[in-house]
Design goal:
2 domains, mainly alpha, 160 residues, 6 helices, 0% strand
């Protein structure tokens, strides 16, 4: 049916072999049992973020491939600072200025997800509102903070 509509059937790898599973890096546990398929890259595609860009430019921090690849290696979500860590000071300065026009504050390395979740839970216990999420944190850190806040609220509501 989908082929009749012009869609092509999925072709390629859909599961890991037993050997690949056994060879999975310990870091993969950060992905909750999921693994990132690393297929063939197109010519010029960055192996870190799967986007075509010059090597001296930052990785695309918004790329899901980059986010999950980085989390698999480091156990936390990447920030823009992580994405441009390999860049020259001039390139970093340009990107920090450009990202600021979109309201993005480029800080240091991100916080571990568990730390953000716990900070959100603690904020709820202290009576802070969901809107009180730290503005200087990355969007992924703020999402983890909100998750901790909401989980704690649900747990306390169940206990009432």
């Amino acid at each position: 049916m989908s082929e009749a509509l012009g869609a092509k059937p999925l072709v390629g790898k859909t599961a890991f072999t037993a050997e690949e599973e056994a060879a999975a890096p310990a870091e993969a546990q950060h992905l909750g049992g999921f693994r990132l398929f690393r297929g063939r890259m197109k010519e010029g595609q960055c192996p870190e973020c799967a986007v075509v860009h010059d090597a001296e430019q930052p990785h695309n921090q918004q790329s899901l491939f980059y986010q999950y690849s980085f989390r698999e290696k480091h156990g936390r979500w990447p920030t823009w600072a992580d994405a441009m860590a390999h860049c020259s000071p001039e390139v970093k300065a340009f990107w920090v200025k450009e990202l600021a026009t979109f309201g993005v504050v480029v800080g240091g390395p991100g916080k571990p997800v568990e730390e953000c979740v716990e900070a959100g839970a603690e904020a709820f216990r202290e009576g802070k509102r969901l809107q009180d999420v730290p503005a200087e944190w990355s969007e992924l850190e703020r999402a983890a903070w909100r998750r901790g806040w909401l989980q704690t609220r649900r747990e306390e509501q169940k206990g009432e």
